[in-house]
Amino acid sequence: MSSVMAATPEFGSAADMAAHYRAVRARMPVVVPQLRRDYLALPRPCARLLPPLSGFATVEDIIPSQFLRAPEEVVRLSSEAERLAVRRAVAGYLALLRQFARTHRRMPLIQAAVGRAFKIDPNGFAHPSRRHGVTRARQIAMCLSKLLTSTSHNEIGRSFGGRDHTTVLHAYRKFLPLVVEVLTEMYDGQSCPIDIPEPADQ
Predict the structure, then answer these.
(1) What CATH number does the domain containing 153 carry?
(2) How much is the pLDDT for 86?
(3) DSSP secondary-structure letter at 40?
(4) N or C: which end of the chain has fewer CB within 10 A?
(5) DSSP SS3 for 5
(6) Has residue 7 been placed in a domain?
(7) Would 2 be classed as within a structural domain?
(8) Is the pLDDT of residue 32 over 70?
(9) Rounded to two decimals, what is the model's pTM?
(10) Residue 75: HSE in the Cβ half-sphere, 13 Å Cα cutoff
């Protein structure tokens, strides 16, 4: 199977981006292929096609900047903005991995990538606020932590303000479909297999 893929297009509006994603999902296989957790195993053609951390001028207004807002004041993003933020978070995390040694702790990197992608302060992930805005971003970060690292539920929970492993399990089950959809779109469901860990209690 060839790993050569077409370049990711730029979008003039959220509607254009949504239409493109619907078309991509329509041609995806029913069974999602498997993704290895080790980012070094990702095919280089795919890695080059990941969205850069800058240059989102055509759709940047979809995600409002909330860096200066307190965690309890962060507002929830629209579904398309949230999907775009997940794409940026995955791309940002993989970019950060290439900057640090393989022994570097992964949790701070995921939190930094998700915070930057959602344009919120990553320090707010440990805040006890239950407002939808910061809670959904935190849960997505937990889901990415479980899917893209070998970290246990307990350790992930401790990294997010001492939360219980059942909270991590809930976040993983809740956002796994969204994250897998985004990963499939980013890799066109062909060049990069997706390995989904079993959501067993730990």
Answers:
(1) 1.10.1750.10
(2) 93
(3) G
(4) N
(5) coil
(6) no
(7) no
(8) no
(9) 0.65
(10) 9
